Every structure is written in C-alpha cells, then in structure tokens.
C-alpha cells in the first residue's frame, strides 16, 4: 500500500511552547486512521500541524511525495488535503448548496460532478439544499461540513472530532459515512474523543499522550492492549 | 394639518433623507460584517465623493447625475488606497486601533476637501427648482431619482451578494472568516471588493445629499451619526436592515420637527442609537452583536 501522508518526528506548537514532541503519524492510501488520547494530549494539534496551522520546529511532513512542511493552508488545500474543524465548521447563514459551493471555491469550471458526488454521499442534504445550514441539527451540520470539504476531491480528509456532541445514532451514521467516503478513494485522518468506538471502526489508530506517541497499531490490537484500555478507555 | 401637508413637508423629505443615509449605512454595515470595525471616516469619504462629482460637474459641464458614476469610481479607488496605506497594517492589532485610525482619516479627508474646494457652501446647479405637483403631492425630480437610485444600487448589491461567486465569498467571509480561509477564499480580494462597494455607495450618498441640499465640507461628518444609527437600527451586517434603518432615521429626523425645535433634529439619530443599543442591540433584523 502506498504511503499518502507521513509526519516524521514533528515538534511544534502555536506560540513558543512546543505542544507536540517528536510525533510521527502515517496514513496510507484509502485508509481510515484515528488519533485518540486523553484531553490535552495534542490530538487536534497534531492534525492542525498537517494542515499548516502550526509553527513546526522539527521534523517533516510528506504528503503524496511532496514535502508540505510550512506550507500555507490554502496551498495545502489545493494540493489535496481538506480539513473539517471541530467547531464553526459551516457557514450558518448560507444555504447547504452555497456551503458546498464555497468548498469548491478554488475549483474552476463545471461543479456539477462534484455536487453529484457529495449529494450521493449525503442524500439528506440534497432534499434540503436551499435550507440555511445554521438551521440544521448537529448531525446534519457535520454532514454539510464534510460535504464542503469533499467538494475539491481531496485525497486526504482531516476530521477533528466529527462526532463531538452527537447522539450515538448519529455517531454511527457519521462513521458509516466515513467508510463510504473512504470507498470513493479518499483517505481519512480523524481525531476522536469516543476512543472505543473509533478504534473499533478505524483501520489503524494512534494513541497520543502529553504531545507524544504512546501506542500505535490496528484498532483491534489497540483495543486488546491492557495498558491502552486502562489509560484512556476507562478500563 | 392635512394629510397632504404631512406627506409633503415631513414624510417625503424624510424618505429622501433616509435614502441618503441608507446608502452610507449599507457601506458601514458591510465594512463591519467583513472587517469587524466601525469606520468613522465614512461620512467624510461621502463628502469627498460629493466634491469629486462637483469637480466633474464644473470641470466638464456634466450634470450631477452623469458625474455620479465617475465620483463613485474615484471614491472607491480612494477607499481602497486608504485601506492599503493605513488600515492594512493594523489588521492584526485590536480593532479599536483601526477605529481610532479611521477617525484620523476622517480629519485628513476633510482637510483635503477644505484645502482644495474651500469651506464655503457650493451647489451643483444654481437656481431654484420648483416641485412638480402629483395630485397634490409636491415632489421634485431630484427627490424621485434619489430614492430610485438608492433602490437600484442596493438592489444590485443584493443580487451580487446572492448570486455571484465573489458576492457569496463576501458573505462567507462575514459568516465564518476562518472557514472561508480554509476553503481557499482569498481574503485580500474580498477586502478590496468590500472597499470598492462601500466607497462607491459612500460617494452616492454624498452626491445625493449635495443634489438635494448643498455641498459643505462638514456635510458628511454630520451624516456619520445618522448613518451609524441606521446601520445599528437595522441590524449590523444586514444590507436590507441598513436600508430600513437609514429610512427610519431619516423619517424620524423630519418628523421630530413636529414636536421638537428643528435645532434638535440631529439629536433624533442619537436618541434612536441609544434606544436600540439599550433595548435590542442586534437591531430590527437580528444582526451581529456589537
């Protein structure tokens, strides 16, 4: 399997303090990889590092054979990585359709194929395309946010806690959508608070603690690990 | 007082004045929506627009209406230039720094107007215009086209914001600036576009004030408070709200003469502003909270 993204020993933070210490994460083509860990472990920070939102002081980030360390977010978007933040990830006062249109802002020419693809993944959204995104429920907002990010046909999708605050039913639905998205050829790197469910559904997982790699392996392997279970998964 | 007197002497002048305020209030609301600060040089930019049109009228013998588009383009250019030279460097600083800077710009722009065109009152066309009589309603032509132009300009702006790619980008940036950046929207271009639109509308409001009254170097400064009152009354960040707010402030100012001495006309805007900020700071149409 081809390596799509590799963070190699990345050290960095927002200001002067380093939040990440020597963090390494790898995502292969068409793979779902989850980052779990306790609060303040640097999970979201690791993801932001990929998207160029962090001051990186050591290590490198290679995406699809390009060294993207230090690139600006809009260049990274164009290169094929799209990012869905945890909060404020939709344009509330714009319709669902306009949200998708803004996602494809950098794309020239006909957008109908991109719209079709997203609406096929999220049939619920197609029916309500004229509705203001701010009027939707939490789960549907998350779908709009993911749909917006998928408009540019990214190779890698970054999701920051996509199931935060959602009911278990929606959580399962979001995970299923992630699998559907993966099946269209997009790799996914996501951060999850619900570690048990996320590890069960992802191909591979990384456990971060205090800004450092702690464990890694397949979801099943990590779930079976005693130390992981005790540390982060509540026994 | 008959109903016709009420319409002729209070309501119609109020709608005309309100239309002039509305043009400025729309710019103020757009600047707040995109850049998140109160732009205090807005009135004096309107003065500049009015005098640029005056220069075209006297220099080339054009009518004020023909000079309007030229003045709008020139003022839009000046607005973009002011942003590049002054405000752009302050973008990362607390917003109050830019607000204070805009007060400085207001004084500078006014001084330029005073140096170039003097401090005496001027007018585009000499002589007295008699109003036409429409079934007892006495309306001057210039009053009709002030209102019609305001509606056309704001209607065009609304269409641009609703339909065009860059109009939507402006709304996206006002809605969620971080996500707009993550989507690859070029915020610098959106800012330039905002100044072009705000500057053009500013000039239109100045020119129409000049057409309906006279040109003075303080004309725009005196409009600043009513324009802000209109923007806040309608709900900051809402174009249709700014139009509604501007009209209400204009009408309220004219109606205030019924109960207050006319010297207190200008206090009306202040009273509306104070009342709205105390009672409903999101404005009539639920804008952003200041």
From TrEMBL, chain B:
Location relative to the cell: Cell membrane
GO biological process, one term: L-alanine transport
Annotated GO CC locations: plasma membrane
Native source species: Roseibium aggregatum
Keywords assigned by UniProt, alphabetized: Amino-acid transport, Cell inner membrane, Cell membrane, Membrane, Transmembrane, Transmembrane helix, Transport
Gene Ontology terms for molecular function: L-isoleucine transmembrane transporter activity; L-leucine transmembrane transporter activity; L-phenylalanine transmembrane transporter activity; L-valine transmembrane transporter activity
Entry membrane topology: Multi-pass membrane protein
Lineage, broadest ranks: Bacteria, Pseudomonadati, Pseudomonadota, Alphaproteobacteria, Hyphomicrobiales
UniProt cross-references to Pfam families, sorted A to Z: BPD_transp_2 (PF02653)
Name assigned to this protein: Branched-chain amino acid ABC transporter permease
Xref: PANTHER family: BRANCHED-CHAIN AMINO ACID TRANSPORT SYSTEM PERMEASE PROTEIN LIVH (PTHR11795), HIGH-AFFINITY BRANCHED-CHAIN AMINO ACID TRANSPORT SYSTEM PERMEASE PROTEIN LIVH (PTHR11795:SF371)
Membrane-spanning parts: 6-33, 45-62, 68-87, 96-117, 144-162, 190-212, 266-285
Family: Belongs to the binding-protein-dependent transport system permease family. LivHM subfamily.
């Amino acid at each position: 399997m081809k390596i799509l993204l590799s963070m190699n020993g990345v050290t960095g933070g927002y200001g002067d303090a380093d939040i990440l210490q020597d963090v390494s994460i790898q995502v292969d083509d068409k793979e779902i990889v989850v980052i779990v860990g306790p609060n303040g472990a640097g999970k979201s920070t690791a993801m932001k590092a990929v998207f160029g939102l962090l001051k990186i002081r050591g290590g490198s980030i290679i995406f699809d054979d390009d060294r993207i360390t230090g690139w600006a977010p809009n260049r990274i978007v164009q290169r094929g990585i799209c990012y869905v933040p945890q909060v404020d990830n939709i344009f509330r006062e714009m319709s669902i359709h306009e949200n998708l249109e803004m996602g494809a802002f950098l794309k020239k020419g006909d957008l109908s194929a991109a719209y079709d693809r997203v609406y096929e993944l999220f049939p619920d959204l197609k029916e309500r395309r004229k509705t203001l995104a701010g009027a939707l429920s939490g789960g549907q907002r998350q779908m709009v946010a993911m749909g917006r990010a998928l408009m540019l046909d990214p190779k890698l999708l970054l999701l920051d806690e996509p199931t935060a605050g959602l009911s278990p039913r929606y959580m399962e639905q979001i995970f299923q959508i992630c699998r559907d998205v993966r099946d269209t050829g997009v790799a996914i790197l996501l951060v999850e608070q619900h570690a048990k469910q996320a590890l069960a559904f992802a191909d591979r997982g990384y456990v971060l603690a205090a800004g450092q790699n702690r464990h890694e392996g397949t979801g099943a392997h990590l779930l079976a690990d005693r130390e992981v279970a005790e540390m982060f998964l509540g026994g | 007082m008959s109903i016709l007197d009420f319409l002729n002497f209070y309501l119609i002048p109020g709608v005309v004045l309100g239309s002039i305020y509305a043009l400025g209030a729309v710019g103020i609301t757009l600047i707040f929506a995109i850049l998140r600060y109160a732009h205090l040089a807005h009135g004096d930019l309107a003065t500049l627009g009015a005098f640029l049109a005056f220069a075209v009228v006297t220099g080339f013998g054009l009518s004020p209406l023909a000079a309007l588009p030229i003045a709008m383009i020139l003022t839009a250019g000046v607005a973009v230039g002011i942003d590049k030279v002054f405000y752009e460097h302050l973008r990362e600083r607390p917003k109050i720094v830019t607000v204070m800077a805009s007060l400085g710009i207001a004084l500078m722009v006014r001084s330029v107007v005073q140096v170039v065109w003097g401090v005496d009152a001027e007018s585009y066309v000499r002589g007295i215009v008699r109003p036409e009589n429409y079934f007892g309603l006495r309306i001057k032509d210039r009053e009709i086209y002030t209102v019609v132009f305001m509606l056309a300009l704001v209607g065009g702006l609304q269409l641009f914001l609703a339909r065009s790619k860059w109009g939507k980008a402006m709304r996206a940036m006002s809605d969620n600036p971080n996500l707009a950046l993550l989507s690859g929207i070029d915020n610098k271009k959106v800012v330039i576009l905002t100044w072009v639109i705000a500057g053009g509308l500013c000039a239109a409001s100045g020119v129409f004030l000049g057409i309906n009254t006279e040109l003075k170097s303080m004309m725009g400064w005196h409009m600043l408070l009513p324009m802000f009152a209109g923007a806040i009354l309608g709900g900051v960040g809402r174009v249709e709200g700014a139009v509604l707010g501007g009209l209400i402030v204009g009408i309220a100012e004219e109606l205030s003469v019924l109960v207050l001495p006319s010297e207190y006309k200008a206090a009306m805007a202040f009273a509306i502003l104070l009342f709205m900020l105390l009672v409903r700071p999101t404005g009539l149409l639920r804008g952003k909270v200041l």
